[in-house]
């Protein structure tokens, strides 16, 4: 297919519609992650449950990015909705860091030597990294197959050209208004569930806080181009989310708190922190950056996150012990 056959189609990039698309997808992503973790939470499980969520989120990310233009031409907000909202919320960087720290610190007081604690932490680190990369590459392979099939069906290739419209209600389409309406209804639905439902309130709170985390991460992504070869926005989201999760884990391990407070803390951990931080975008950046900056970015992200875990959570549990109040 020659370049002469391709035509450029201008597409309005309205950030209000994009933000609205992220909201329901982030709620769905948080639910998928929590469900996958709970499915794997049984005695004798071969690996930690979170690894499946990381793999699934990265797989969808790889598939979606390979069909980016197709999604843009169909309806632009659907792409950031899936990548930022869904994939970014299925995967989580902060819980990964908490898992590494808990293994290293032997949080659950297993009869391990210190050397085995280090091996356990290293396993959590490497297995998650390997599975996430595997999911991303596998998703890209599937995406390639889909994109080739789409190209065969369309004789004329179209290239989308995004026209930035900012946070404005001008140039909005009917699809945009439907997306905004659906986002509002979705968010209100989980808020009412958190208020009135007597069951699974921690899950409801997670759904309430999920869009806040995802939208914060999306906003921080605007700063990713500020430093060459260092996605400062994703870095800030992952590190800040890890700090917040360490504080929440401290609250769960410290003084006695009420049952409703436990549900709120769990909701913030799974919803806000889980959706504020991401491995899917992190893996895309690691695989697209030049080699040296990629290693620097990955190393700093993990090391700085672990430093905050040790300072905030480690300093307490090693001096006061572990006394989980929200188990």
Question: Would you write up a description of this structure?
Answer:
- With 327 residues, the chain is mainly α.
- It has one domain.
- Helices cover 73% and strands 5% of the residues.
- The protein has twelve helices and two strands.
- The protein starts with 6 loop residues before the first strand and ends in a 7-residue tail after the last helix.
- It catalyses: fluoride(in) = fluoride(out).
- Its main location: membrane.
Index terms:
5% strand; two-stranded parallel ribbon; mainly alpha; 327 residues; membrane; globular; cell membrane; 12 helices; 2 strands; 73% helix; Fluoride ion transporter CrcB; single chain
Which helices and strands appear, and what pairs or packs with what?
Elements: E1 7-14, H1 15-39, H2 50-66, H3 68-75, H4 78-90, H5 93-105, H6 114-153, E2 158-166, H7 174-196, H8 201-220, H9 232-253, H10 259-276, H11 280-288, H12 291-320
Parallel strand pairs: 1-2
Output the radius of gyration: 21 Å
Q: If strands are numbered along the chain, what order do they take across the biggest sheet? A: 1-2
Shape: globular
How much helicity do the residues have?
over 70%
Point out poorly predicted stretches: none
- Indicate how many domains the architecture comprises: 1
Number of helices: 12
Strand content: 5-15%
**Would you count the extended β strands for me?**
2
Main sheet summary: 2 strands, parallel
Helices and strands: which structural class?
mainly alpha
Distance between the termini: 59 Å
How would you spell out the order of helices and strands?
EHHHHHHEHHHHHH
Overall mean pLDDT stands at: 90
């Amino acid at each position: 297919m020659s370049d002469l056959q391709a035509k450029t189609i201008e597409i309005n990039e309205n950030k209000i519609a994009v933000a609205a698309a992220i909201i329901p997808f982030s709620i769905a992503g948080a639910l998928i992650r929590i469900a996958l973790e709970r499915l794997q939470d049984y005695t004798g499980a071969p690996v930690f449950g979170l690894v499946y969520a990381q793999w699934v989120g990265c797989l969808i990310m790889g598939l979606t990015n390979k069909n980016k233009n197709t999604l843009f031409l169909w309806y632009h907000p659907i792409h950031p909705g899936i990548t930022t909202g869904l994939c970014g919320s299925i995967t989580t960087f902060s819980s990964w860091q908490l898992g590494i720290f808990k293994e290293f610190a032997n949080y659950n007081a297993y009869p391990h030597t210190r050397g085995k604690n280090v091996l356990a932490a290293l396993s959590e680190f490497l297995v998650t990294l390997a599975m996430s990369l595997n999911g991303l590459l596998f998703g890209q392979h599937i995406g390639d197959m889909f994109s080739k099939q789409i190209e065969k069906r369309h004789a004329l290739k179209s290239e989308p050209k995004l026209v930035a419209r900012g946070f404005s209600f001008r140039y909005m389409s009917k699809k945009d208004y439907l997306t905004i309406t659906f986002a509002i209804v979705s968010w209100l639905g989980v808020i009412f569930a958190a208020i009135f439902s007597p069951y699974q309130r921690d899950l409801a709170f997670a759904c309430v806080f999920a869009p806040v985390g995802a939208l914060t991460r999306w906003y921080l992504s605007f700063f990713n181009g500020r430093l060459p070869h260092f996605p400062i926005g994703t870095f800030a989201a992952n590190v800040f989310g890890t700090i917040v999760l360490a504080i929440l884990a401290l609250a769960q391990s410290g003084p006695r708190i009420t049952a409703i407070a436990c549900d709120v803390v769990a909701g913030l951990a799974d919803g806000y922190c889980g959706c504020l931080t991401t491995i899917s975008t992190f893996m895309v950046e690691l695989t697209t950056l030049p080699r040296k900056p990629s290693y620097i970015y990955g190393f700093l992200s993990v090391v700085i996150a672990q430093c905050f875990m040790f300072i905030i959570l480690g300093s307490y549990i090693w001096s006061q012990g572990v006394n989980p109040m929200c188990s």
